[in-house]
Amino acid sequence: MTGPKIYTVSELSQGIKSLLETNFRELWVEGEISGLKVSSLGHTYFDLKDATSNISGVMFRGFAQGLKFELANGLLVRVRGNITTYDKQSKYQLMAKAIEPAGIGPLQLAFEQLKKKLAAEGLFDPSRKRPIPALPQKIGVVTSPTGAAIRDILSILKRRYANMHIIIAPVKVQGPGSAEEIANAVIDLNENFPDIDVLLVGRGGGSMEDLWSFNEEIVARAIANSRIPVISCVGHETDFTIADFVADLRAPTPSAAAELVVKSKVELAGHIAQLEKRLLQSLRIYYENLYGRFLRLARSRVLANPLALLERPVRRLDDAVEGLFAASAEKARRAGERLNLQTAKLNALSPLFPLKKGYAVVKDANGKAVKTAASLAPGDRLSLQFAEGRAEAEVVDGGGRPRPQAKRTEKGGQGPRQETLW
Q: Is this prediction's pTM over 0.70?
């Protein structure tokens, strides 16, 4: 009797792996993403779950790079892939090759996600948008050199303003690498042609997939960082791209962008004529008002008698001069009075002042003032100082010393006689 087949662990694992991979190939599974994790190598690991069950999934880097939108926990998706096992853990998982959002397409989801991200950064704020020059001298165009858009733009610009300076940066506008070309063209024109007044960035109409290059983040950031004002002109009037929201101005079509950026010569001529008319009207009104003011001034009393302008200033000057003289005279009078008063006081203190009243200054032979009679003796010689003039005298009767005897000398009758007078 033959016994049961005995499997090794490896044999059983390989059998299960072969069975799953053979019977569950290229299937679609719908569920909610959870436990999302991206490894350092770029592989994406996640769980796909519904109300009652859960399955592990992995998307390797090569497939993950093809996603148009960002995966996030809670996102309802449809995953296309194979069921396989991981031998070492006997764990089956879904190996994803493609992931699409359930409900809306992947491109629309990617559009909404990038739009929300850039709006949060303020790249759509009206305050950062710059005005488009009214009369640009040099225009840059970033578009395909072979598409209908460039032909329409050049035709309209030539018709509206033939001598416009145009610089074309030829790029791919769809397919792999097109977003990078568009972004690099915007950057190069800013760096190498800083005198460009405005940039037109766009292409003709197409499907969402055809226009997708203008929804790429690299293009949006190149436009946002441009020092040159940018007009976005992508697709038809009903088409909206991320570039439209970031640009300084959105034109519904490339043709409309050309019409917006350059006014026609007829429009310019009409505008100049209107400005000229308004200027002449303003000048006429200004000079009429000026002439009216001139007539009123010509009829005024001041211009009829110009000297009347000087009457009041001259009168005020005369009054000021008279006041100055009067103040000076009064000041001099008061100064004279003070001088006389001080002179009188000084004279009263003078030793000569009593002499005017009849007194005299008595000095002895040595020139010393005699203060008392007791210091005198008969025969002393004195000097008398009066208010006017001087006199000599001799003491006849002293106050404290004896009087000397008078002497008479006679010879042959009356001769000379000396006599003490005091």
A: no
